[in-house]
Every structure is written in C-alpha cells, then in structure tokens.
Amino acid sequence: MTKAEIARRIAEDFGLSKNKAFKIVDAITEEIVLALARGEEVWLRPLGYMYVRQHRRKGGELYNPRVNKRPSIVPECYTVVYVKLSKQAKEMLLGGKT
Questions:
Q1: How far is CA 93 from the centre of its chain?
Q2: Is the pTM of this model over 0.90?
Q3: Do 54 and 79 touch, CB atoms closer than 8 A?
Q4: What pLDDT score does 75 carry?
Q5: Cα 22 vs. chain centroid, distance in angstroms?
Q6: What three-state secondary structure class fits 86?
Q7: Can you tell me the distance from the alpha carbon of 42 to that of 77, in angstroms, rounded to the nearest whole number?
Q8: Tell me: the pLDDT tens digits for 46-67?
Q9: Contact 3, 22 (CB under 8 A)
Q10: Is the backbone peptide bond immediately before 65 cis, with ω within 30 degrees of 0?
Q11: Rounded to whole angstroms, how far apart are CA atoms 41 and 94?
Q12: Roughly how many angstroms between the first and final C-alpha of the chain, as a whole number?
C-alpha cells in the first residue's frame, strides 16, 4: 500500500479532498521520520512501535575483494530502524498463531 492509496482511503472515509488527505498522510509520515531521526520511539497503537538502534561496524564487512583493499573512510556505526508489532497486530496478521 502506498501513501497515495492511504490518502485516497482517508479522503473517501472522512469526506476530505484527496489533496488535503495526502497532506495529512505526508505530515504524519514526516513526523514519524523526524522522531526516529531524533532517536525517539514511535508508538502507533494498535500496530506497535518503532525504534532506532546504532550498531558498530565489524572489521571485515567493508572489505571489497574485487579491488583487494578497504575504504579509506570507515563509518563508526550504522543505524537500523526496528518495528515491534503489538500482540493485537500479530494476532490479526497471523490469525491467532503467536
């Protein structure tokens, strides 16, 4: 499902124009991304929550065997966004098989 499809459904359900619904969806996604960039957890009940973690690089993962050398600038860490589903969302997706 895309942002445009979500905006279309919101427009239909709440009687809004597609443009206004798209602006709402865009504002929500922008706030979620900004909160994750600040390192905050984002709770969306009943979906679950999203959070960010920093991981240190391992020594060999940046090695390029084709040119047989390592890059001169090695980033110290990388960021991963995790999504933890709520129990209710898992039950809806898996049909009660949690």
A1: 18
A2: no
A3: yes
A4: 66
A5: 18
A6: coil
A7: 22
A8: 899 999 998 876 665 566 667 7
A9: yes
A10: no
A11: 25
A12: 24
Give DSSP secondary structure letters for 9-38.
Answer: HHHHHHT--HHHHHHHHHHHHHHHHHHHHT
Residues of the chain with pLDDT under 50: none
C-alpha torsion sign, points 37, 41, 43, 44: positive
Residues 6+ apart with CB under 8 A from 78: 54, 55, 57
Structure tokens at 37: 């960039």
Is the distance from CB of 77 to CB of 57 less than 8 angstroms?
A: yes
Burial 27-60 (b: 16+ CB within 10 A, else e): eeeeeeeeebeeeeebeeeeebebbbeeeeeeee
Token pair listed for 19: 């443009």
